[in-house]
Design brief:
Layout: E1 8-13, H1 22-39, E2 44-49, H2 53-62, E3 65-67, H3 72-80, E4 84-88, E5 105-108, H4 124-132, E6 140-141
Parallel strand pairs: 1-2, 3-4, 4-5
Antiparallel strand pairs: 5-6
């Protein structure tokens, strides 16, 4: 999803003070940085936690590629963007349907985080390993 020639990659996240899950988010974000760094050695990867909401929304609208989590905060700037957007299919948005929103809006139909868990509880390490598996073309719906 991220073009190989990307020079600057922003990861935008809530402030660590906002959520009760701050420690878990820190582990996930740290693992994401560790995962992305060797994949994009020529890319500056910047993690911003708790930045200005207006600045974050502006960055999402005007970035070349926006990859969203299942978040209404990301959905609106993604919808306003004229650039490439990947958004996970979730019942939170449009009742889980995949209408054509814009020519550059792509639904991720098999989002790794929103998949149902197995019967047994998944450890944080298992969760991170599952997230590190790359998306395949069958995970993304490209509606033209």
């Amino acid at each position: 999803l991220i073009p190989p020639a990307t020079k600057l990659l922003y990861i935008l996240s809530d402030s660590h003070h906002r959520a009760n899950e701050g420690a878990i988010c820190k582990v996930i974000l740290t693992s994401l940085m560790e995962y992305l760094t060797p994949l994009f050695p020529s890319t500056s990867i910047v993690l911003i936690r708790g930045g200005s909401q207006l600045t974050s929304m502006t960055q999402m609208v005007f970035s070349n590629v926006t990859v969203c989590s299942a978040s209404t905060f990301c959905f609106w700037p993604a919808l306003a963007s004229n650039n490439t957007v990947y958004y996970p299919l979730t019942s939170m948005i449009l009742n889980g349907t995949t209408p054509k929103l814009t020519s550059q809006f792509h639904w991720i139909t098999n989002p790794k985080i929103l998949q149902k868990k197995d019967e047994k509880e998944e450890s944080l390490d298992q969760f991170i390993q599952r997230l590190r598996k790359p998306l395949t073309s069958s995970d993304v719906v490209n509606i033209v």
